[in-house]
Design a protein that fits this description.
By secondary structure, this protein is α/β, with parallel strands linked by helices. It contains 4 helices and 5 strands; from the N terminus they run E-E-H-E-H-E-H-E-H. Helix 1 runs parallel beside helix 2.
């Protein structure tokens, strides 16, 4: 089960994700991100502190969102405080080299 909350912080959409992101629900994350992008919100921060597990399906949704926002001027997806397990998965997939990862929400939001 995944729980997704979206908050506006200045010009940044803060997407707080909690639970497990796997093949059964990764599309929910993708839809939430796509809706933000379609509404013109291209500065996204994903707070992954509450994510205990993320599968490759979840990673695909993040990369897909990153590709979409990069087409927009100033668009980016940044990661805030990923749990240890999620950070490991990001590193194993090599995504830590293309995604900016911050230790706190404040740092990630402030990086814009």
């Amino acid at each position: 089960m995944v729980d997704i909350d979206i908050l506006d912080r200045d010009n940044v959409s803060l997407v707080q994700v909690r639970g497990r992101v796997d093949s059964t629900n990764a599309d929910q994350l993708g839809e939430a991100l796509a809706q933000q992008i379609e509404n013109g919100h291209t500065q996204l921060v994903l707070d992954l502190a509450g994510v205990e597990y993320m599968s490759s399906a979840g990673l695909r949704e993040i990369v897909s969102a990153l590709k979409r926002v990069k087409r927009s001027a100033g668009g980016d997806v940044r990661i805030a405080q990923p749990s240890y397990r999620v950070r490991e998965v990001l590193e194993m997939a090599g995504l830590d080299t293309i995604l900016q990862i911050y230790p706190t929400q404040l740092d990630a939001v402030g990086s814009y």
